[in-house]
Every structure is written in C-alpha cells, then in structure tokens.
Write a structure and sequence with these properties.
Number of helices: 3
Shape: flat
Structural class: alpha+beta
Oligomer: single chain
Strand order of the largest sheet: 2-1-3-4
Distance between the termini: 37 Å
Largest sheet: 4 strands, antiparallel
C-alpha cells in the first residue's frame, strides 16, 4: 500500500438489497451515487456530510499502483446513519413548556412497536366488552370466561408497561443512542417565538428533558434541538 499512487472512493445510497457482496461490479451504477472521489495516498480517513438520517449506505474503495494500474473494488461496506432525535412536548401552561427527547436503539424501537401492536390488538378485541356480556359468558361457558379474563389481565399488564415506558421518556429517561466514536456531551435548544426572537439554552448530557419557562401566554413557539459533540459546541 505504501507504494500506491492514489485511491478512489465511491459511496452510494441503497434503498434495497441491491448490492452483491461478492461482485466487483457494484460500483458501476447500483444505488444512488453520492461520492466519487480520488484521494492522495496519505489520506486514510474521510468524512462525508449531508447524509440522510436513518439511511443505508455502501462504501467501496480501490487502489491505484505506481504503474497506474487500478485494483478491484473492495466488497461494499454497509453503514446506516443514526436517526434524528425525537423532540416532543408534554405538560405546558401559560408561561412554560416541558420538552423531552429520545433516540432509541433499533431493539428498543422494535420492542415498543411490538408492545404497542399487542395493546392495540387487545383493545380492538375487548374495547366493546361490557360487564354484562362478561357475566353472560361466565354463566354460559366457565372455561371460556377464564380464558377471557386471562387475556384481559394480559392486556392490562401490557398497557401498564406501555404507559410506564412513555412516562419514563416524558420524565427525561428516554434512551439516546450515539456513534461509539462521537459521544454526546450535551444538547443545544433553540426556541423561536412567532415574532422572530430567539432564546438559546445548553443542557448537559444525561438530562433528556427541559422545561422552557418565562414564555409569553397564548403565543406560538418553534423548538429546535441539536446534539453537541463537546460542551457548549453544537
């Protein structure tokens, strides 16, 4: 490698599994081309900006020797960008708004989605069940009645877990994932009033909620949240 002359990097965004890891032809046109760059041999790292959050990308590289001969493209390296932070507001009054945010891991998002789907299924099944109908079922078929009671208890248990999770996020306990090499040091909150005036606030990492106070009553605000890779630097 030290005898190399230049290297060439190609980066593409792919929507589906359209790259064959065993092929050297993937750089010829699969996916949406984002980067096609020739680098000097001293460049061993590259930062690419302007990417789409929560999107999948493939990166390939090949080397040109001192004899101007290009080698084969490497197998595509797959990467997925982080999703954006989810910023929401909870309780609010005439002069304050409670903000909270999260960026859960894929596992947490999947577990939450599955739990929400289970609760929704139970609600569709039992939301119209009346005490009278339940008593009639008990008199008609005691075994079916017990099975129904077990399902209702499961429904209530899942609903309780869901409410507990949502209350935890609103209370500032939401999960915020980050890249291993770029830990978050804090958050930069920007609040824009409808007349264009701006307020800014820095919040340290570990605090995933913040109460905006001193606001004007019956007024519209826009809130923006940025992660800060280092203290006071958004």
């Amino acid at each position: 490698i030290k005898q190399g002359k230049t290297s060439k990097v190609v980066m593409r965004r792919t929507e589906v599994d359209e790259v064959d890891p065993g092929s050297n032809k993937h750089a010829a046109g699969l996916g949406t081309l984002l980067l096609d760059a020739t680098l000097n041999p001293q460049t061993h790292n590259l930062r690419v900006g302007g990417l789409t959050p929560n999107a999948r990308y493939h990166l390939s590289i090949r080397w040109r020797s001192v004899t101007d001969t290009w080698g084969d493209w490497t197998a595509p390296e797959e990467m997925t960008t982080l999703d954006t932070l989810s910023l929401r507001n909870g309780r609010f009054g005439e002069h304050y708004i409670n903000l909270f945010w999260e960026r859960p891991s894929e596992k947490t998002k999947w577990d939450y989605k599955r739990l929400q789907q289970t609760v929704d299924d139970f609600e569709r099944q039992f939301k119209h069940l009346t005490p009278h109908a339940l008593e009639a079922e008990r008199l008609r078929d005691s075994q079916e009645y017990e099975r129904t009671l077990a399902k209702i208890k499961e429904w209530k248990s899942h609903s309780s877990i869901l409410r507990s999770y949502e209350a935890g996020v609103e209370g500032g306990g939401g999960e915020v994932t980050f890249s291993g090499g770029l830990p978050i040091q804090g958050y930069h909150i920007r609040v824009v009033h409808e007349d264009g005036t701006v307020q800014e606030q820095y919040v340290d990492e570990g605090q995933h909620r913040y109460t905006l106070s001193g606001l004007r009553h019956n007024a519209a605000y826009t809130c923006l949240l940025y992660t800060s890779p280092s203290p006071r630097d958004s």
